[in-house]
Amino acid sequence: MNLARWLVRAALAHPDRPAVLLGDTVVLDYRTLADRAARLAGHLRGTLGLQPGERVALCMHNHVGYLELLYAAWWAGLVVVPVNAKLHPGEVAFIVGDAEAAVLFVSEDLAPDLRAPLAALPALRQVLTPADAAYRTALEAAAIEPVHRAPDDLAWLFYTSGTTGRPKGVMQSHRNLAAMTACYFMDVDEVTAADAIVYAAPMSHGAGMYNFAFVAKAARHVVPVSGGFDPAELLTLSRGIGRLCLFAAPTMVKRLVSHLRDTGAPAHGFKTIVYGGGPMYVEDIQDALGVMGPCFVQIYGQGESPMTITALSRQHLADRAHPKWLDRIGSVGMAHSLVEVCVVDSRGDPVAAGEMGEVVVRGETVMTGYWRNPEATAQTLRDGWLRTGDLGAMNEDGFLTLKDRSKDVVISGGSNIYPREVEEVLLRHPGVREAAVIGQPDAEWGEIVVAFIVGDGVEPEALDALCLQHIARFKRPRRYRFVEALPKNSYGKVLKTALRQLA
Ligand code: AMP
Q: Model pTM?
């Protein structure tokens, strides 16, 4: 059970089919993609001597080489650690060090800033960029056969920030990702060879995890020339390539829809847009359906059960005649076919239909635990159930509506920002006594980061500079509010709900 077998199979069955495209230009067919993965695997195992289970980190923008690197690592029996390319070099080095990655593949423009922080990592044996001569040499290594992996062997180590601010490695096994893909076919969409997935969101996250469904069907993988989300570019690609499928955060859907409305362009080149990762407002999905038609499917998932907790199907989204249609499109849909989803009270007992509680999940996609973190694993996986930290209510028809995020994560432009991490940086300023960070709804970004500060003689510019020094740009507060005191409960805990009302 090695996920790399799906590429082997696709290449044997359909060697000449286009596999990887840059914009509308075919770069690799399936034969070549598999051959390159097999050779890179040969380099990792043969030349570098990596042993099955060792980690290979990828800190790269979306790139035509991303897929061959993912599959090379699995082919060689290794574990991939995809790192968000937008992170601060110190954050990248923390993840690469925590995972004890032996090799790092990095985008050319990111390499210089990473040199110093990476120098301190003893386990790291090689850092390569796809433009290096050394990468071309690696591609000349002798191809190897895929290494056998057991279903529970680790495939993908996905770092997610915790409330403590320290990122935790979510361990996703070959079984987890295979089940995630089966659920895609069962509950999200069917895929044919004529389809194309376009990576408009980072391949280090959910968008990249959707590659499996398209490799399994020998369909096309499109990396936009911009490397990311540009509505005009997507529209051009949809016309040129057709049957375009993508995963998008709700804010991206909103921008694409307004672009289509403004230009009056037809949307028929889009086959399926899967949205999720943050709340989609009812008005926005109605608008999107009106402009683009029934091409949408919603998913609710989290790193700990990748892309797979519930799904709201195309049919449910389109069924306007249903008396509960409005409630349904405001929900995240029904449990995926290979998991059970339940809403529980603080004791862990199921609550009645319609009542609010914490969403818990068990089944084939649920992670095996957090990397080298048994305490966090024990807190999150209890009695076989994954505690999601999300609050929601399930109605009598099995539709789940998320009410709030108990973890207070801010989701801005599709990226998760963990308040505690930002607060810790702000508190480094000698004039800051207390800091509390929340998300404020924003038409463009979904949410923006707002920081409440208690302190003396502190200027927003100084705080901004401090943040730029320590954390990724996208995490820094867009607004500061200077207050006399923070609202707190009797235990001294800051009341974030009260702060949100204030904002
Ligand atoms: P991550 O682990 O980074 O994928 O973040 C997962 C979190 O994003 C979940 O626990 C939810 O709080 C939120 N989330 C994911 N999908 C949805 C969705 N469809 N609607 C609302 N929130 C979502």
A: 0.88
